[in-house]
Amino acid sequence: xxxxxxxxxxxxxxxxxxxxxxxxxxxxxxxxxxxxxxxxxxxxxxxxxxxxxxxxxxxxxxxxxxxxxxxxxxxxxxxxxxxxxxxxxxxxxxxxxxxxxxxxxxxxxxxxxxxxxxxxxxxxxxxxxxxxxxxxxxxxxxxxxxxxxxxxxxxxxxxxxxxxxxxxxxxxxxxxxxxxxxxxxxxxxxxxxxxxxxxxxxxxxxxxxxxxxxxxxxxxxxxxxxxxxxxxxxxxxxxxxxxxxxxxxxxxxxxxxxxxxxxxxxxxxxxxxxx
Length: 275
Description:
The protein is α+β, with helices and mostly antiparallel strands. It folds into two domains: 8-113 and 259-274, Roll (Diaminopimelate Epimerase, Chain A, domain 1); 147-249, Diaminopimelate Epimerase, Chain A, domain 1.
């Protein structure tokens, strides 16, 4: 029997291969549940994504964004999705303000098809990253001597000899669930390939290995500078391409490309079976 639920439009976007389903509910309320997020994120039976991003109206910003991971958990920050949606919403002024759990974020047209977004100041206090107890966030008591950084979500960055030699499929989940991170953590492995130039790979909590991660790139750049490896402006080579991070006095600015791949609809029958 066909469902009475109307079809649900969505957009598919990606930033350096970090891919998203985007639902714009400014004109129509759509209840998004853990079950629905998981169903859409299923790459065999749904659409598939690293994160789901939902656009809502906001009285004091151009839009408000909420992010869901592929496992149905909420995420406070998603830099590449923020950049993609900023490009989608950007008008002639070339400036967009988006509200997330990180606060009000400013995004700008950086020319040549690039978009830059201020992801806010990094979180460097153990309580608000958060960590389970007080410790030196620049030298965690974990084998490999990683750095903890908050970018609205927690990050654990390891500086290694060769990031490509790390088996992220086992290394990532082992550290995502480390008890020092009560809300789990994103995991990065990075090495220096030149002055202010890093190679980085990422395991995202709730998503797994991804080709890129904006907040992880920001956290890695902050960690590298705090370790004395780089200046505040760095280029990072990800599995999906290149991103530029600049830790300024007013926040961590992230610049990179975006892609709006296609528009689609979720059918009434599929929605009935998955809501």
